[in-house]
UniProtKB/TrEMBL annotation, chain B:
InterPro entries given in the database record: ABC3_permease_C, MacB_PCD, Macrolide_Exporter_MacB
Any one annotated GO CC term: plasma membrane
Compartments where located: Cell membrane
Residue ranges of domain MacB-like periplasmic core in the record: 17-233, 490-691
Natural source organism: Glycomyces terrestris
Sorted UniProt keywords: Cell membrane, Membrane, Transmembrane, Transmembrane helix
Transmembrane segment boundaries: 262-294, 314-340, 360-383, 404-426, 446-470, 491-511, 717-746, 767-795, 807-831
Molecular functions (GO terms): transmembrane transporter activity
All copies of domain ABC3 transporter permease C-terminal, residue ranges: 270-390, 725-840
Protein name per its UniProtKB record: ABC transporter permease
PANTHER family: ABC TRANSPORTER PERMEASE YTRF, MEMBRANE COMPONENT OF TRANSPORTER-RELATED
Keyword Iron-sulfur annotated: no
Family in the record: Belongs to the ABC-4 integral membrane protein family.
Coiled coil: none
Length: 263, 848
C-alpha cells in the first residue's frame, strides 16, 4: 500500500531541474491575509514528469506560478537549473521564461491571428531566434499536426488546439515545461492524446514536465505526484496509478477533513 | 432592469469614460461654437460702443451714391461745423479727419497687411488716445503714431516716417509721440494709425480743404439725442447727414452681426463635423463594449429577459451616458468658448477687454445633440445585442468573425450612388439651380458613408500592405495582424480619421487645381515677361508715377511697356471694372487678348472697348452708347463702343482713353506690363527696370512666378485655414484610436498575459500595440486621401468647363497628412501600450 510507505527520500541521483526551498507566499494583509504557501521545499528531477495535486485553494497553482517565475516568493528561494529566481527583475525573469520555460495552459491560449505553425514557432519568434527545424518537425509529426499547420485556432478542435499548445511549449527545448490543468477543457479522448504525448516527451526526449491537475487519471501518467493541502506538501507519491492517487486523496481527506473546503 | 443597467455601468467605469470622451468632445464643440460666436458678437458690440463714446449725434458726409465707402471726397464742411457749433442745444463738438494712408516702414516697404493704416487728426476727442512716449504733434511735419504702428513699421520715437495719400506726394514726418488706447490697447481692431495735426490730416484726406470725415456732437444738458438731431437738421441741410450715435452704433452692430454670423456657421460646421466623427466613435465603442458582454447578455436572456428589455437596457445606458457626458461637454465647451473669445479678441480684434456671452441655447443644444447622438449611435449595437441567443451564455469565447459581404456590397452601392449624385449635381449647378448644388453636397456626404461601409472590406488588403513595412519585427507583425483582426472595428476607427483627412484633401486638391489652372491659363496667354505692381494687401492701392514709364521704355531690352489705370465705375447704372491705358492695342496683345469686332487702335475721347459678356450684360453691342461715371467723376459721360474683345479673364472689362484716368479713384497707374525683347537677358532688364522704380516703394518688378504667387496668395491662405480643420479631426481621431486600442487591450488581456508568460518583453508588447495603432491611423489617412482625391477630381471635372482645367495633386500636403496620421497613431498608442506592457500576467492567465 503506497499510503503506508513513509515519504520517499529526496531524489538525489538525478540533477534537479527545479528546486524550491522553504518557500512562503501570502496574499493580502491583516485579517484578510491568506497564506497560500507555507514553507514549501520540493525538488523536481530533470527528465521526470511530476504532477502537483491538491484541492482548490491548496496552493498548487501558486506553487507552479512561483516555480515558473510568474509570481514572487515572500521567503525562500526557487531555482530553475542553476539560476536563482529570487531577486530577479522583470527583464531577467522575462528572459528566463522565454529561454528556459515552456507553458501549457488550460485555455490553450493560442494567438487567434496566427496559424497553427506560427503559434508553434511563437516562442522562438518572440526570442528572435530560429527554432531547430528538425526538432520542430519531429514534434509536429509526433503530435499528428502536419495536416493542420496552416489552420487558424478557430478552425481547430479543442484537442487539436491543445496539441498545438504542447508543440509550442516544446519547440524551443525548454529546461522545464509547466502545464496548468492541460486537460481541464478537453474530452476524455483528447485528454488521453495530450497526456500520452507529455509522457512520450519525457520518455523519448528527456523533457522535464511539471503539471498541475486535479484529475487522478491525468496524474497517473506522471512519475511522481506531489500532494498539497493548505499550502503544505502533505504527500509525495512515486509511480502512481489512478487508483493509488484516489486512495491517497481519500486518505488525507480523512486525516485533514476540512482541507477540501478550505478557501 | 434599470437597476441592472446602473450596476453594470458602475462596474465598467473605464470603458464608460472612454465612450463618453467622444460625446464630451462633440457637445463641447457645439457649445463652444455657440458661446464663441455670441461672445465675439458681444465683444465687437463693445468695440462699436467705443466709437464716438459720449457723443449724442454724429454728422457725416453724404455717401457718394453706389460707390460705397471706396472714397470720401466731400467732408462735412467748415460752414456746416460752424452752424452746428452755433446751436444752443450743443454742449460739445469733436471733429474727426480719418482716412486710409500709406506709410513706409523701416525697410522702405508699405506698413500694414489686412488691417488698414489710417491717418487721423490728433485733436479728435472722440477717440481716447493715451500718449505713452513723447508729445502730441504740433507742426504739420510732426506725427504721433500708435503703438501698433511702432511694432509693424520698426520705427520709433525720433525717427522720420514717410507717408502719403493717393493724390499727395510723399512727405517726411518726425515721430514726436507714441500712443495707445484706453485699456492699454496697442490698436483698435489691429489697425495702425498716424495722428497728424488737423490741417495736415485734412491735406492728406481732402487735399487741404477745411472739412471733416465726421463731427460728433454732445447735447447740452436737458436735451435728448432725438431733440438734438431734430434741432441740427437745418444746420446740416443737404450737404451732410446727421444720425444719433445710438442709431450709428446699432448700424455697426447689425453689420458685425452679419459678419459674425459667418464665423458662427463656420464654427458650428466644425462642431457638426466633430459630432459626425463621434457618431462613429460612439457606435464603435458600444459595439466593443457589448461584444465583451455577450455572455452577460445571453445570461440575462436565459433567465428570461425579453429582447425589448435588452435593447432598452443598452439604450438606457446610452441615454444616461449621453446625458452625463454631454453635460460635462457643455460645461467644457462653454468654458473653452469663453477662453477662446479672449484669444480671438486679442489675436484679431486687439481689444483689451472681452465680453463673454453665454446664450442659453449653447448648453441646451450641446446636451440635446450629445444625448441624441449617443442614443442614435447605440441603436444598431443595441438591436444587435438583443439578437444574442441565450445559448451564447454556455458557449466558449472563440468565434469566427461575421462575414462582411453584405456591408461591402451595400457600401459599394452607396458610394456609387453618392458619386452619381455629385456628378449629376455639378453638371447642372452652373445653370444656377441651387437644388443641384444640394444634390452635389448630399452626394459627397453619401460617398463618405459608402466609403466608410467599404472600409471593412478594404482593411484586409490595405492593412496587409501597410503591415509589410513592419514585418522585419515579430512584435510589429503581431501588431499588424491585430489591426487586421477585427475588420469592422478597424474600419470604423479608421473611418473616423478618414472623414477629416478626406475633407482637407478634397479642399486642398480643389484649391491647388484652381491655382494651377489659373497659372496654366496665365502662362499660355500672357506675353509680357515682367509686371510692375504692388502687394494686394496694401490699404491704399499701390500706384507709381506714370512719367517713369518713359524711362522704363528706354531701358535696353524692353520691347513694349504698357501701364494700366484701374477704376470701378458706374456703367449704365451698374458697377463695372474700367481700365485706361495709353497703348490699348499693345496692352491687349501683352495680355493675350483677342479682338472679335471693331478696333482697339487709338481710342479717342468718347470711345470704349469691352469684352463680349460684359457688353451682353448691358445688352449693348458695337456702335451702341453707354453712360459712365468714374469714382471721382462729377458727371456722367457718354461712350460709344468701337471694339469688342473675346472673353478672357485677363482682359475682361471696359477700356477708355488714358485722359479719363484723372477721374479714376487711383489717378496713377496701378500695374504695368513689360515685354522683354527676344534675346535680351531678363534678369538684367529686371534689374534696370527696378533701378528706374527705385523711388517707388509701393510697387516692385515681378516675373511670372512672383506675380502668380501674389495673385494666388488668397488660395494659400485658404489652404492654411483648412489645415485647422485637419487639426480638429486629428484630435477626435486620436481619441477614437485610443478608444479602440484600450478596449482591444482589455479584451486581449489573457492573450497578452500568455505572451508575457512565454517571455515577450515589455518593449515588444509596447511595439506590438504601437504598430497596431499606427497601422489603423495610416489606413484611415490613406482612405481619406483616396476619397479626398476622388471628390476633388469629381468637382474639378465638373468645373472644367468653367476654366478649372488642370487637376493638381497637393503632394506635399498629402505627405504631411500621412505624417500627421503616423503621429496620431504614435500618440494614441502611448496609454494603451503602457497598459498592455503592465498587464498582470497571473491575473490574465488564471482561469476564473
Amino acid at each position: 500500500m503506497p499510503l503506508a510507505n513513509p515519504p520517499a527520500p529526496q531524489i538525489t541521483r538525478t540533477r534537479s531541474a527545479v528546486t524550491a526551498s522553504n518557500v512562503w507566499r501570502a496574499y493580502g494583509s491583516g485579517e484578510a491575509q491568506v497564506v497560500a504557501l507555507r514553507d514549501v521545499s520540493v525538488q523536481f528531477a530533470s527528465g521526470a514528469f511530476t504532477a502537483i495535486m491538491g484541492p482548490s485553494g491548496s496552493g498548487k497553482s501558486t506553487l507552479m506560478h512561483c516555480l515558473a517565475g510568474l509570481d514572487t516568493t515572500d521567503r525562500g528561494t526557487v531555482h530553475i537549473g542553476d539560476t536563482a529566481l529570487t531577486g530577479l527583475g522583470d527583464k531577467a525573469l522575462t528572459k528566463l521564461r522565454r529561454d528556459k520555460i515552456g507553458f501549457i495552459f488550460q485555455q490553450f491560449n493560442l494567438l487567434p491571428t496566427l496559424t497553427a505553425e506560427e503559434n508553434i514557432l511563437l516562442p522562438a519568434s518572440i526570442a528572435g531566434v530560429k527554432a531547430d527545424p528538425e526538432w520542430v518537425a519531429r514534434i509536429i509529426a509526433t503530435l499528428d499536426l502536419s495536416e493542420r499547420l496552416t489552420h487558424k485556432p478557430t478552425e481547430l478542435s479543442g484537442g487539436q488546439q491543445q496539441r498545438v499548445a504542447c508543440a509550442r511549449a516544446l519547440a524551443t527545448r525548454p529546461e522545464v515545461v509547466f502545464a496548468d490543468e492541460p486537460t481541464g477543457n478537453l474530452d476524455t479522448r483528447s485528454s488521453g492524446e495530450v497526456l500520452r504525448f507529455l509522457r512520450r516527451s519525457v520518455d523519448d526526449f528527456g523533457q522535464t514536465i511539471v503539471m498541475v491537475t486535479h484529475d487522478p487519471g491525468a496524474a497517473a501518467y506522471a512519475d511522481r505526484v506531489v500532494f498539497l493541502a493548505d499550502g503544505q506538501i502533505v504527500e509525495d507519491l512515486h509511480r502512481p496509478t489512478a487508483d493509488s492517487v484516489i486512495d491517497t486523496m481519500r486518505g488525507f481527506e480523512n486525516r485533514v477533513p476540512l482541507a477540501g473546503e478550505a478557501r | 432592469m434599470l437597476r441592472a443597467t446602473l450596476k453594470g455601468m458602475a462596474a465598467r467605469k473605464a470603458r464608460l469614460i472612454l465612450t463618453s470622451l467622444a460625446v464630451v468632445l462633440g457637445s463641447a464643440f457645439i457649445a463652444s461654437a455657440l458661446v464663441l460666436t455670441a461672445s465675439i458678437r458681444a465683444t465687437v458690440a463693445d468695440l462699436s460702443g467705443d466709437a464716438y463714446r459720449g457723443a449724442d449725434v454724429l454728422v457725416q458726409p453724404l455717401e457718394p451714391e453706389n460707390r460705397g465707402d471706396r472714397l470720401v471726397r466731400d467732408g462735412v464742411t467748415a460752414e456746416t461745423l460752424a452752424a452746428i457749433e452755433s446751436s444752443e442745444d450743443v454742449a460739445e463738438v469733436s471733429t474727426t479727419v480719418s482716412w486710409m494712408v500709406n506709410a513706409l516702414g523701416e525697410d522702405g516697404k508699405i506698413v500694414g497687411g489686412f488691417a488698414p493704416t489710417l491717418s487721423v487728426n490728433w485733436g479728435d476727442a472722440s477717440v481716447e488716445r493715451e500718449l505713452r512716449e513723447g508729445r502730441a504733434p504740433e507742426t504739420d511735419r510732426e506725427v504721433a503714431v500708435s503703438a501698433q504702428f511702432v511694432t509693424e513699421s520698426g520705427l520709433g520715437l525720433g525717427d522720420t516716417v514717410t507717408a502719403y495719400a493717393l493724390d499727395t506726394d510723399e512727405t517726411a514726418y518726425e515721430i514726436v509721440g507714441v500712443y495707445g488706447y484706453s485699456g492699454g490697447r496697442d490698436s483698435l481692431s489691429g489697425a495702425t494709425e498716424l495722428a497728424f495735426t488737423t490741417p495736415e490730416a485734412q491735406r492728406l484726406v481732402f487735399g487741404g480743404e477745411d472739412a471733416y470725415t465726421a463731427v460728433a456732437v454732445t447735447a447740452a444738458s436737458g436735451v435728448s439725442a432725438d431733440d438734438l438731431l431734430a434741432s441740427l437738421e437745418p444746420a446740416v441741410g443737404d450737404e451732410a447727414q446727421a444720425i444719433t450715435r445710438q442709431a450709428y452704433v446699432d448700424d455697426l452692430n447689425a453689420e458685425s452681426a452679419e459678419a459674425t454670423k459667418l464665423i458662427g456657421y463656420f464654427l458650428l460646421g466644425f462642431g457638426l463635423i466633430a459630432v459626425f466623427v463621434s457618431v462613429f466613435l460612439i457606435a464603435n465603442t458600444f459595439s466593443i463594449v457589448i461584444a465583451g458582454r455577450l455572455k452577460e447578455i445571453a445570461m440575462m436572456r436565459a433567465i428570461g429577459a425579453g429582447r425589448g428589455q435588452i435593447t432598452r437596457s443598452v439604450l438606457a445606458e446610452a441615454g444616461l451616458l449621453g446625458a452625463v457626458a454631454s453635460v460635462v461637454g457643455a460645461g467644457i465647451g462653454v468654458a473653452a468658448g469663453a477662453g477662446l473669445t479672449s484669444v480671438v479678441a486679442n489675436g484679431f480684434l486687439d481689444t483689451a477687454s472681452t465680453s463673454v456671452a453665454i446664450p442659453w441655447t449653447a448648453p441646451l443644444a450641446a446636451v440635446a445633440v450629445g444625448v441624441g447622438v449617443t442614443v442614435l449611435s447605440a441603436l444598431v449595437p443595441a438591436v444587435r445585442a438583443s439578437k444574442t441567443p441565450p445559448v451564447e451564455a454556455m458557449r466558449a469565447a472563440a468565434k469566427a468573425d461575421k462575414p462582411i459581404l453584405g456591408v461591402t456590397v451595400t457600401g459599394l452601392l452607396v458610394t456609387l450612388l453618392g458619386a452619381t449624385g455629385i456628378v449629376l449635381g455639378l453638371n447642372e449647378t452652373f445653370d444656377g439651380d441651387n437644388m443641384n448644388l444640394m444634390s452635389a453636397a448630399v452626394g459627397a456626404g453619401v460617398v463618405f458613408v459608402g466609403v466608410a461601409l467599404l472600409t471593412a472590406w478594404l482593411s484586409k488588403p490595405v492593412v496587409a500592405l501597410l503591415g509589410a513595412v513592419w514585418s522585419w519585427s515579430f512584435a510589429g507583425r503581431l501588431g499588424r495582424l491585430n489591426a487586421a483582426r477585427n475588420p469592422r472595428r478597424t474600419a470604423v476607427t479608421a473611418a473616423a480619421l478618414m472623414i477629416g483627412v478626406t475633407l482637407v484633401t478634397a479642399t486642398a486638391t480643389l484649391l491647388t487645381s484652381v491655382k494651377e489652372s489659373l497659372a496654366a491659363q496665365f502662362e499660355s496667354s500672357i506675353q509680357a515677361e515682367l509686371f510692375i505692381t504692388g502687394p494686394v494687401t496694401s490699404s491704399v492701392p499701390a500706384t507709381f508715377d506714370p512719367e517713369l514709364m518713359d524711362d522704363v521704355r528706354a531701358v535696353d531690352g524692353v520691347d513694349t511697356a504698357v501701364e494700366l489705370y484701374y477704376d470701378v465705375a458706374q456703367v449704365d447704372g451698374t458697377e463695372q471694372s474700367v481700365n485706361a491705358t495709353t497703348d490699348l492695342e499693345g496692352g491687349i496683345a501683352l495680355f493675350g487678348g483677342e479682338v472679335v469686332e471693331g478696333t482697339v487702335e487709338n481710342l479717342a475721347e468718347g470711345q470704349t472697348v469691352v469684352n463680349e459678356s460684359s457688353a451682353d450684360l448691358l445688352g449693348a453691342g458695337l456702335g451702341d452708347t453707354v453712360a459712365m461715371t468714374f469714382s471721382r467723376g462729377t458727371e456722367s459721360r457718354e461712350f460709344t463702343i468701337v471694339g469688342i474683345l473675346a472673353d478672357n479673364a485677363d482682359t475682361d472689362g471696359w477700356y477708355v482713353d488714358r485722359s479719363y484716368a484723372t477721374e479714376f479713384y487711383t489717378p496713377k497707374p496701378t500695374t504695368a506690363l513689360v515685354d522683354v525683347a527676344d534675346g535680351a537677358d531678363v534678369e538684367e532688364v529686371t534689374a534696370d527696370v527696378e533701378a528706374v522704380l527705385a523711388d517707388e516703394p509701393a510697387v516692385s518688378v515681378q516675373n511670372h512666378e512672383e506675380y502668380l504667387a501674389q495673385v494666388t496668395v488668397f488660395f494659400d491662405y485658404a489652404i492654411i485655414a483648412i489645415q485647422l480643420l485637419l487639426a480638429l479631426a486629428m484630435i477626435v481621431a486620436v481619441i477614437g484610436v485610443v478608444n479602440t486600442l484600450v478596449l482591444s487591450v482589455l479584451e486581449r488581456t489573457r492573450e497578452l498575459g500568455m505572451l508575457r508568460a512565454m517571455g515577450m518583453t515589455r518593449g515588444q508588447t509596447t511595439r506590438m500595440v504601437t504598430v497596431e495603432s499606427v497601422t489603423i491611423a495610416l489606413f484611415g489617412a490613406l482612405l481619406g486621401v483616396g476619397t479626398g482625391l476622388l471628390l476633388g477630381w469629381i468637382v474639378q471635372q465638373a468645373l472644367a468647363p468653367s476654366g478649372i482645367e488642370e487637376f493638381a495633386v497637393p503632394t506635399a500636403l498629402i505627405a504631411a497628412y500621412l505624417g500627421a496620421a503616423v503621429l496620431v497613431g504614435l500618440l494614441a498608442a502611448i496609454a494603451p501600450a503602457v497598459r498592455a506592457s503592465k498587464v498582470d500576467i497571473l491575473g490574465a492567465i488564471s482561469y476564473e
